[in-house]
Amino acid sequence: MSPQPKSDNNAHTSQPIPQEAFDWYDEYAHGIIDRREFMARLAGLVALGFTMTTLTGALMPNYALAEQVSFNDPSIQASYVKFPSPEGYGEGRGYLVMPASMLIPGKEAGDPKTLDPTKKAPVVLVVHENRGLNPYIEDVARRLAAKGYIAFAPDALYSLGGYPGNDDAGRAMQASLDRSKIELDFIAAARFLKAHPQSNGKLGAVGFCFGGYIVNMLAASIPDELAAGVPFYGTPAATELRSRVKGPLMLQFAALDQRINDTWAEYETQLKANKAEYIAYLYPNVNHGFHNDSTARYDEPTAELAWARTLDFFGKHLQG
């Protein structure tokens, strides 16, 4: 991994939040501790001069902060579309975002007749965290479409009615689902996207946290179909699948994210044994979730650097 310059991981707060709070939030967000324990630990910081409102406001997502490309931006057209997943939950649904240049002017998105069949573009699957298709992930899909990619962000919670508008509820819903069926839904979504009429045939994937795991899983499960994968702070696929990974992969890690980083050495050993094409970056002084601009874990300079590298990587492997 290549170290990068230090940056401020408390950009959304007026005073630094102790690192322990970020670590507790990570444990809470991933089911290691429950909400009662998380709040009890935060209460212990009140003696240091913080209020509970300040702490929860900094750590919990505020999705109004995460819109970089508006849903009505003229450079993109977005719609929700369904896809078949017979081996998963039967049917999936996701957020499909097209560059406006791919459509016939004056038509509405979602109607096949609006597509200009002469235009092709690379496709990128965007995979959410462990709480369903929230506004941050939808915005990531729009960011990709604004750069000329056909982006598709499935919602693993569709079989339960979809992302509920609340991360806590979404996290509980996703935890209740069969993990293997979720994985099959994402494989189905990747194949659905690759076969899109305007796809140039080159499939990329980017994912965050649980989504990073899904990108690693896709690289192991459909290695000949995935042309480029970028997992952000994701764990590797199941051990029995890792020998199939060929890449290319760009793996993005946060130096303060010990839980995920502890999985890397073994995974890298396997990638080397596979002679897989990969590059990995370790960004110092940032937390798990540093790309998510809806919480205080967001680190703008690091997120922008990692995203610029992601776009360069997709440009190299998916364009043309």
From TrEMBL:
UniProt KW keywords: Hydrolase, Membrane, Transmembrane, Transmembrane helix
Annotated ranges, domain YqhI: 12-43
PANTHER family the record matches: ALPHA_BETA-HYDROLASES SUPERFAMILY PROTEIN (PTHR46623:SF6), CARBOXYMETHYLENEBUTENOLIDASE-RELATED (PTHR46623)
InterPro entries, per the entry: AB_hydrolase_fold (IPR029058), Dienelactn_hydro (IPR002925), Dienelactone_hydrolase-like (IPR051049), TAT_signal (IPR006311), YqhI_dom (IPR057802)
Domain of life where this protein originates: Bacteria
Family matches, as PROSITE patterns: TAT
Cross-referenced Pfam families: DLH, YqhI
Lineage, highest ranks first: Bacteria, Pseudomonadati, Pseudomonadota, Gammaproteobacteria, Alteromonadales
SUPFAM superfamilies the record matches: alpha/beta-Hydrolases
Domain Dienelactone hydrolase: 118-317
Molecular-function GO term, any one: hydrolase activity
TM regions (residue ranges): 42-65
Name of this protein: Dienelactone hydrolase
